[in-house]
Design goal:
Length: 210
Protein backbone atom coordinates (compact mmCIF):
# COMPACT_ATOMS: atom_id res chain seq x y z
CA UNK A 1 0.00 0.00 0.00
CA UNK A 2 1.33 3.43 -0.92
CA UNK A 3 1.87 5.69 2.08
CA UNK A 4 -0.49 8.61 2.63
CA UNK A 5 1.11 12.05 2.67
CA UNK A 6 0.19 14.75 5.18
CA UNK A 7 1.91 18.09 4.64
CA UNK A 8 3.50 19.80 7.64
CA UNK A 9 1.24 22.81 7.20
CA UNK A 10 -0.05 25.38 9.69
CA UNK A 11 -3.47 26.71 10.68
CA UNK A 12 -4.55 29.56 8.45
CA UNK A 13 -3.52 32.88 9.95
CA UNK A 14 -6.15 35.61 9.95
CA UNK A 15 -5.76 38.87 8.03
CA UNK A 16 -2.35 37.78 6.76
CA UNK A 17 -1.45 40.78 4.66
CA UNK A 18 -1.49 44.53 5.26
CA UNK A 19 -3.18 46.91 2.84
CA UNK A 20 -1.71 46.93 -0.65
CA UNK A 21 1.36 49.22 -0.53
CA UNK A 22 1.75 52.16 -2.93
CA UNK A 23 3.05 51.21 -6.36
CA UNK A 24 6.21 53.26 -5.87
CA UNK A 25 7.34 51.23 -2.85
CA UNK A 26 10.12 48.71 -3.58
CA UNK A 27 9.25 45.04 -3.86
CA UNK A 28 10.55 43.23 -0.77
CA UNK A 29 12.00 39.71 -0.92
CA UNK A 30 12.02 37.73 2.34
CA UNK A 31 13.94 34.68 3.59
CA UNK A 32 14.14 33.19 7.08
CA UNK A 33 15.90 30.41 8.94
CA UNK A 34 17.19 29.70 12.42
CA UNK A 35 20.73 30.35 11.21
CA UNK A 36 22.21 32.69 8.63
CA UNK A 37 25.05 30.90 6.90
CA UNK A 38 26.42 29.23 3.77
CA UNK A 39 24.75 26.50 1.75
CA UNK A 40 21.24 27.94 1.89
CA UNK A 41 21.00 29.30 -1.64
CA UNK A 42 21.52 32.93 -0.66
CA UNK A 43 24.84 33.46 -2.43
CA UNK A 44 23.69 32.62 -5.98
CA UNK A 45 20.43 34.49 -5.43
CA UNK A 46 22.20 37.67 -4.34
CA UNK A 47 24.64 37.56 -7.25
CA UNK A 48 21.75 37.45 -9.70
CA UNK A 49 19.56 39.88 -7.76
CA UNK A 50 22.43 42.38 -7.93
CA UNK A 51 21.80 42.57 -11.69
CA UNK A 52 18.11 43.45 -11.30
CA UNK A 53 17.40 46.95 -12.59
CA UNK A 54 14.07 47.47 -10.81
CA UNK A 55 14.53 48.75 -7.26
CA UNK A 56 13.80 46.09 -4.66
CA UNK A 57 14.92 45.05 -1.19
CA UNK A 58 16.00 41.75 0.33
CA UNK A 59 15.31 41.00 4.00
CA UNK A 60 17.04 38.03 5.66
CA UNK A 61 15.97 36.84 9.10
CA UNK A 62 18.13 34.52 11.18
CA UNK A 63 20.90 34.27 13.74
CA UNK A 64 24.24 35.35 12.29
CA UNK A 65 26.65 33.12 14.21
CA UNK A 66 29.74 33.60 12.05
CA UNK A 67 29.53 37.21 10.86
CA UNK A 68 28.11 35.90 7.61
CA UNK A 69 26.32 39.18 7.01
CA UNK A 70 29.59 40.78 5.92
CA UNK A 71 30.28 37.99 3.43
CA UNK A 72 26.86 38.35 1.85
CA UNK A 73 27.17 42.12 1.55
CA UNK A 74 30.54 41.65 -0.15
CA UNK A 75 28.78 39.82 -3.00
CA UNK A 76 26.95 43.02 -3.97
CA UNK A 77 28.05 46.24 -5.61
CA UNK A 78 28.12 49.16 -3.20
CA UNK A 79 24.98 50.69 -4.67
CA UNK A 80 22.98 47.55 -3.81
CA UNK A 81 24.28 46.95 -0.31
CA UNK A 82 21.85 49.34 1.42
CA UNK A 83 18.96 47.32 -0.06
CA UNK A 84 20.07 44.15 1.73
CA UNK A 85 18.70 44.10 5.26
CA UNK A 86 19.13 41.71 8.18
CA UNK A 87 16.71 40.94 11.02
CA UNK A 88 17.30 38.99 14.23
CA UNK A 89 15.20 35.97 15.15
CA UNK A 90 11.63 36.55 16.31
CA UNK A 91 9.28 34.32 18.27
CA UNK A 92 7.12 31.78 16.48
CA UNK A 93 4.06 33.86 17.36
CA UNK A 94 5.58 36.95 15.73
CA UNK A 95 6.89 35.23 12.61
CA UNK A 96 3.63 35.07 10.56
CA UNK A 97 3.06 38.84 10.75
CA UNK A 98 6.73 39.50 9.97
CA UNK A 99 6.52 37.31 6.86
CA UNK A 100 3.27 38.99 5.76
CA UNK A 101 4.93 42.42 5.74
CA UNK A 102 6.90 41.42 2.62
CA UNK A 103 6.04 40.62 -1.00
CA UNK A 104 8.00 37.58 -2.22
CA UNK A 105 9.16 34.59 -0.21
CA UNK A 106 12.50 33.02 -1.13
CA UNK A 107 12.41 29.21 -1.14
CA UNK A 108 15.99 28.52 -2.23
CA UNK A 109 16.37 24.80 -1.49
CA UNK A 110 19.31 22.88 -2.95
CA UNK A 111 18.03 20.16 -5.30
CA UNK A 112 21.36 18.29 -5.09
CA UNK A 113 20.53 17.40 -1.46
CA UNK A 114 18.11 14.50 -1.73
CA UNK A 115 15.84 15.30 1.20
CA UNK A 116 15.67 18.98 0.17
CA UNK A 117 14.72 17.95 -3.35
CA UNK A 118 11.91 15.59 -2.38
CA UNK A 119 10.26 17.47 0.46
CA UNK A 120 8.03 20.51 0.76
CA UNK A 121 9.63 22.70 3.40
CA UNK A 122 7.96 24.77 6.10
CA UNK A 123 9.24 27.92 4.40
CA UNK A 124 7.15 27.70 1.28
CA UNK A 125 4.04 26.69 3.24
CA UNK A 126 4.41 29.70 5.54
CA UNK A 127 4.87 32.01 2.56
CA UNK A 128 1.61 30.75 1.06
CA UNK A 129 -0.20 31.12 4.38
CA UNK A 130 0.97 34.73 4.67
CA UNK A 131 -0.08 35.50 1.10
CA UNK A 132 3.37 36.02 -0.42
CA UNK A 133 4.33 35.35 -3.99
CA UNK A 134 7.10 32.76 -4.19
CA UNK A 135 10.49 32.52 -5.87
CA UNK A 136 11.45 28.85 -5.65
CA UNK A 137 14.27 26.66 -6.82
CA UNK A 138 12.87 23.82 -8.96
CA UNK A 139 13.09 20.96 -6.47
CA UNK A 140 10.63 18.10 -6.86
CA UNK A 141 8.73 19.22 -3.77
CA UNK A 142 8.46 22.84 -4.84
CA UNK A 143 7.48 21.92 -8.39
CA UNK A 144 4.63 19.92 -6.86
CA UNK A 145 3.43 22.97 -4.92
CA UNK A 146 3.53 25.38 -7.85
CA UNK A 147 1.93 22.82 -10.17
CA UNK A 148 -1.29 23.34 -8.20
CA UNK A 149 -1.19 27.12 -8.80
CA UNK A 150 1.48 28.28 -11.28
CA UNK A 151 0.37 31.91 -10.84
CA UNK A 152 1.81 31.92 -7.31
CA UNK A 153 5.37 32.58 -8.40
CA UNK A 154 8.40 31.80 -10.50
CA UNK A 155 11.12 29.18 -10.49
CA UNK A 156 14.69 30.30 -9.88
CA UNK A 157 17.44 28.13 -11.34
CA UNK A 158 20.81 29.63 -10.37
CA UNK A 159 22.62 27.38 -12.86
CA UNK A 160 21.30 29.61 -15.67
CA UNK A 161 21.77 33.22 -14.62
CA UNK A 162 19.99 34.69 -17.65
CA UNK A 163 16.85 32.61 -17.07
CA UNK A 164 17.00 33.29 -13.32
CA UNK A 165 17.29 37.04 -13.88
CA UNK A 166 14.33 36.94 -16.26
CA UNK A 167 12.28 35.27 -13.50
CA UNK A 168 13.17 38.08 -11.10
CA UNK A 169 12.16 40.67 -13.68
CA UNK A 170 8.79 39.01 -14.21
CA UNK A 171 8.14 38.95 -10.47
CA UNK A 172 9.01 42.58 -9.84
CA UNK A 173 7.87 44.47 -12.92
CA UNK A 174 4.40 45.54 -11.71
CA UNK A 175 2.37 45.70 -8.50
CA UNK A 176 -1.02 44.63 -9.95
CA UNK A 177 0.47 41.34 -11.14
CA UNK A 178 2.17 40.95 -7.75
CA UNK A 179 -1.19 41.31 -6.01
CA UNK A 180 -2.66 38.57 -8.22
CA UNK A 181 0.20 36.26 -7.31
CA UNK A 182 -0.27 36.96 -3.62
CA UNK A 183 -3.99 36.28 -3.80
CA UNK A 184 -3.27 33.00 -5.61
CA UNK A 185 -0.79 32.05 -2.87
CA UNK A 186 -3.30 32.65 -0.09
CA UNK A 187 -5.99 30.75 -2.02
CA UNK A 188 -3.65 27.77 -2.45
CA UNK A 189 -2.92 27.75 1.28
CA UNK A 190 -6.63 27.84 2.12
CA UNK A 191 -7.61 25.15 -0.38
CA UNK A 192 -4.72 22.71 0.05
CA UNK A 193 -1.77 23.65 2.27
CA UNK A 194 -3.18 24.41 5.70
CA UNK A 195 -3.88 22.36 8.82
CA UNK A 196 -7.63 22.80 8.39
CA UNK A 197 -7.32 20.72 5.18
CA UNK A 198 -4.87 18.18 6.57
CA UNK A 199 -6.41 17.45 9.99
CA UNK A 200 -9.48 15.59 8.63
CA UNK A 201 -7.20 13.46 6.42
CA UNK A 202 -5.06 12.50 9.39
CA UNK A 203 -8.03 11.70 11.62
CA UNK A 204 -9.61 9.60 8.86
CA UNK A 205 -6.39 7.65 8.33
CA UNK A 206 -6.10 6.95 12.04
CA UNK A 207 -9.73 5.89 12.31
CA UNK A 208 -9.50 3.54 9.30
CA UNK A 209 -6.25 2.06 10.56
CA UNK A 210 -7.62 1.39 14.03
Amino acid sequence: TAPAVISNSFPLQTNPRPACPPSDEPIRFFWFSQTLGPGRGLEPFLRIWAQLEHHSEVVLLGEDRSSYERQLRALLPEAKQASLQFRPLVTTDELPSVIAAHDIGLALEDASIRNRDLTITNKILQYLNAGLAVLATPTAGQREVLAHAPAVGEFFDPSDSAVALAALRRLTRDRPRMLQRQQAARHLAAQRYCWEQEEPKLLDLVARTL
